[in-house]
Design brief:
Elements lengths: L2 E8 L17 H13 L5 E3 L8 E10 L6 H10 L5 E9 L11 E10 L12 E3 L5 H8 L4 E4 L13 E12 L2 E8 L6 H13 L5 H10 L14 E7 L3
Parallel strand pairs: 3-10, 5-6
Antiparallel strand pairs: 1-3, 1-4, 2-3, 5-9, 5-10, 7-8, 8-9
Helix pairs in contact: 3-4, 3-5
Length: 246
């Protein structure tokens, strides 16, 4: 049966994460599978490159599925999008090898976290950023972030989705200013559960002066989950892209 790879964008506000749940809560996976099953007139399952939490967004999540369709890739993309809610869309779709796996074949994943750094909260920004009212020292946060580059044990900042391995390789990590937002960009071969949000919460402590850079490094190297700063809320997190060898 033909296998397809799809790159999708979604606003995760209304969903209980990516993965379908037993309680039939709305999820990204359930919406996609329902749309595909309606077109195929039989149950269709999808596999995702990663599982985002409730409230987390994506600009470049990747999924795969198998389906018989005789009208071309563009027509399939249009048909699926016509059956999806307004907060989920397929950006790109193409047929791939039967051996393609969106999770196991992924080489890099990139996330961005948005912090709204202003004295007064913004109601219209509350669903896509974390409001931090204290001024943040971006230079100090960037200095601390450089210590996580490379291959390290990130046990302080998350738990493995399966098994016990907490070692990950980070290729890029840094903060940048974008008007009233302070953005954290990170790219790695893979991530632990809540790793990005834990890093953001810990680096925020460096930015507001609660921690020194040395405090952050000490917590990081301790490999002790209890030493992490507060986990940043989900609504500021975006899965930006998933990279493959091709």
């Amino acid at each position: 049966m033909p296998r397809y790879k799809a790159t999708i964008e979604y606003d995760g506000t209304a969903y209980f994460g990516f993965q379908r749940q037993r309680q039939e809560h709305p999820t990204i996976q359930s919406e996609l599978e329902d749309a595909l099953s309606k077109l195929a007139r039989q149950p269709i399952s999808i596999i995702g490159a990663g599982r985002t939490d409730s409230g987390v967004h994506a600009l470049g999540q990747v999924v795969s599925f198998e389906m018989i369709w005789r009208h071309g890739e563009d027509a399939l993309k249009r048909a699926i999008n016509a059956n999806l809610p307004a907060d989920i869309v397929i950006l790109q779709l193409n047929q791939v090898s039967a051996t393609f796996h969106p999770r196991y074949d992924a080489r890099r994943r990139a996330y961005t976290y948005r912090v709204y750094n202003a004295l007064v909260r913004s109601p219209v920004r509350r669903l896509n950023s974390w409001h931090v009212r204290q001024p943040l020292n971006v230079e100090a946060m960037n200095l601390a972030a450089q210590y996580i580059l490379g291959r390290h044990d990130f046990a302080t900042f998350g738990q493995p989705p399966q098994g016990k391995n907490t070692v990950r390789e980070v290729f890029l990590a840094g903060w940048r200013l974008d008007d009233e937002f302070v953005l954290f960009d990170i790219e790695a071969n893979a991530f632990l559960y809540r790793m990005v949000r834990s890093l953001v919460g810990s680096l925020r402590l460096v930015g507001d002066g609660t921690w020194t850079v040395e405090d952050f490094v000490s917590a990081f190297r301790s490999c002790d989950r209890s030493r992490s700063g507060t986990v940043a809320p989900p609504q500021g997190l975006y899965l930006v892209s998933v990279a493959y060898d091709d």
